[in-house]
UniProtKB/TrEMBL annotation:
This is Beta-fructofuranosidase. It is an enzyme of class 3 (hydrolase). It comes from Zymomonas mobilis subsp. pomaceae (strain ATCC 29192 / DSM 22645 / JCM 10191 / CCUG 17912 / NBRC 13757 / NCIMB 11200 / NRRL B-4491 / Barker I). The record marks 192 as: Transition state stabilizer. Its cofactor is Ca(2+). The active site is at residues 44, 276. One of its GO terms (biological process) is carbohydrate utilization. GO terms for molecular function: beta-fructofuranosidase activity; levansucrase activity; metal ion binding. Ca(2+) binds at residues 218, 273.
Length: 416
């Protein structure tokens, strides 16, 4: 049933990244940004949506989910303390904190990492959160498993609350065959499930971040990974330590708990080590695959912006994919604030939300941790190109429609 080859993001394509291009640039964030909560760090964020990627409101409230940790914890230590918190808003920009989504015991491991939250198709108020159940030990991440937890949403005119989310089910984990596991690569990445229905075949899939299955550092980067570069272009030997992939799994059960891993859609061996939070938009017959990465995770000899990258396919979800804008860069930091924002997420309506990561104080050179939402940016998708056109409010999320609606949207979204 599945017959496709991974598309390669090559070094030659990544060499085209232009950090000066204003059409792929965030607005500059100064040191005076507003903070949503002075008791919480918040970072990776996603909206309550339907399984086709449309943002929904529930009884007049827009709802978002963020990784949160106590602000008393050092910014760089937050990952091992991450829990999923939720916020709700009437206007999509003034957010009220509702607390943790999962009961303390729902996650069978120690931290709750990124994922996504959908209204269960056809349900009145059933909610499913796909997340990364992560186990930390003394040396770092020991396990990372895609998991699902379920509950119900309720709201009145004072706010939103949830029931359930008191247990979780593992969905899939790195197999060492398509995706590197801990034994092959103890710095392996495997996380951030994004569940959606593919309009072409009506099947349910999950995208996620992985690494190419191989023993770290044992394979050389080849010509196919390098691409068409000028002759005598040096490729540092240790670029083989970078092996990110965008993975895909196929759902085997109606309750979205049973899955099979498929080979990756995109690989970045020799190019970059992390392709995080992958997600997809179907528009005008094209399939747009988005992911986030850092400058620091590019292989030696390459540089990029911290931010959103993307790939486009003319043949549906299985590709082949080409990098958007030739290089892959869709929305990154500014030359003077290169790490200002991260964990970008593009919605079907072209709005891209992200969180404020680290802003450099131009007076002192000191780094100021953000831990709050960044200005949302409108990005137009035009064939194989993208254009940042408009800056919205900090943390602005726009619901596409109200749930529940009388006629629940068809499983197949109309291609816009
Ligand atoms: C991106 C990310 C995700 C991960 C989370 C952990 O910012 O690294 O890939 O789920 O943050 O905090």
């Amino acid at each position: 049933m599945f017959n496709f080859n991974a598309s390669r993001w090559t070094r030659a394509q990544a060499m085209k990244i232009n950090k000066q291009d204003k059409t792929t640039m965030m607005p500059e964030i100064g040191t005076d940004f507003p903070i949503m909560r002075d008791d919480l760090w918040l970072w990776d964020t996603w909206p309550l949506r339907d399984i086709n990627g449309n943002v929904v409101s529930f009884k007049g409230w827009t709802v978002i989910f963020s990784l949160v940790a106590d602000r008393k914890i050092a910014w760089n230590n937050r990952h091992s303390h991450a829990r999923i918190g939720y916020f709700y808003s009437k206007d999509g920009k003034s957010w009220i904190y509702g607390g943790h989504l999962l009961n303390e015991t729902a996650n069978t491991r120690t931290a709750e990492w990124s994922g996504g939250t959908i209204m269960a198709p056809g349900s009145r108020n059933q909610v499913e959160t796909f997340f990364t159940s992560t186990l930390f030990n003394e040396s770092g991440v020991a396990e990372a498993v895609a998991a699902v937890t379920k509950g119900h949403i309720y709201a009145d005119n004072k706010g939103v609350w949830f029931s359930g989310f008191d247990q979780s089910t593992d969905m899939f984990q790195a197999d060492g065959l398509f995706y590197a596991n801990y034994t092959e690569n103890n710095l392996w990445n495997f996380r951030d499930p994004h569940v959606f229905i593919n309009p072409e075949d009506g099947e349910t899939y999950a995208l996620f971040e992985g690494n190419v299955a191989m023993v770290r550092g044992q394979s050389a980067v080849g010509e196919e990974e390098i691409g068409f570069v000028p002759e005598n272009t040096a490729v540092a030997e240790d670029s083989c330590l970078c092996s990110a992939s965008i993975g895909i799994a196929h759902c085997l059960s109606d309750d979205r708990t049973e899955w099979e891993l498929l080979p990756p859609l995109v690989t970045a061996f020799g190019v970059n080590d992390q392709t995080e939070r992958p997600h997809v938009i179907f528009q005008n017959g094209l399939t747009y695959l988005f992911t986030i990465t850092h400058n620091s995770t590019f292989a030696d000899g390459l540089t990029g912006s911290d931010g959103l990258y993307g790939f486009v396919s003319e043949n549906g979800i299985f590709g082949p994919y080409e990098p958007l804008n030739g290089s892959g860069l869709v929305l990154g930091g500014t030359p003077s604030q290169p790490t200002e924002s991260y964990a970008h997420y593009m919605m079907n309506n072209g709005l891209v939300e992200s969180f404020i990561n680290e802003v450099i104080d131009p007076k002192t050179g000191k780094i100021i941790a953000g831990g709050t939402l960044a200005p949302t940016v409108q990005v137009e998708l035009q064939g194989h190109e993208t254009f940042a056109t408009e800056v919205k409010a900090y943390g602005y999320i726009q619901a596409d429609y109200a749930w529940p609606v009388r006629s629940i949207p068809d499983r197949r979204p109309s291609i816009r």
